[in-house]
Amino acid sequence: MSSAPDYLRPNEGVYIGSLKSATTAGEVTRWTEMPKILAPMPHTGSESQFRALYIPKGKALWAAREGSNIVTDGPLLGCQGGWY
Fold it and tell me: Could you read off the pLDDT of 3-60 as tens digits, one per residue?
């Protein structure tokens, strides 16, 4: 997370987490360490709370693939924002 809206500058970002992408085509990977929120939800299965990440006004969420080699079949990164 950073206050830089145009590009991520060194020493301006705050690391909030990571995940390893799936190795099987079509498999979806989710960040399971996302913070739990207090929004009510019906209890289904073992998950008893919604998870979400609050990005304050003036901050930007940056996502990237980390690696030293060029790949043509790398993971797709999806980030969605808005008021819910």
Answer: 887 888 888 888 888 877 777 777 887 777 888 888 777 766 676 788 888 888 888 8
HSE (CB half, 13 Å, CA atoms) of 49?
10
pTM recorded for the entire structure:
0.57
Q: How many domains does the chain have?
A: 1
Q: Is residue 75 part of a domain?
A: no
Residue of 10, 30, 34 lying closest to 22 (CA atoms): 30
Query: What is the spatial distance between Cα 63 and Cα 37, in angstroms, rounded to a whole number?
Result: 22
Nearest in space to 75 (alpha carbons), one of 8, 16, 20, 15: 20
Expressed as residue numbers, the domain containing 10 is 1-21+28-65
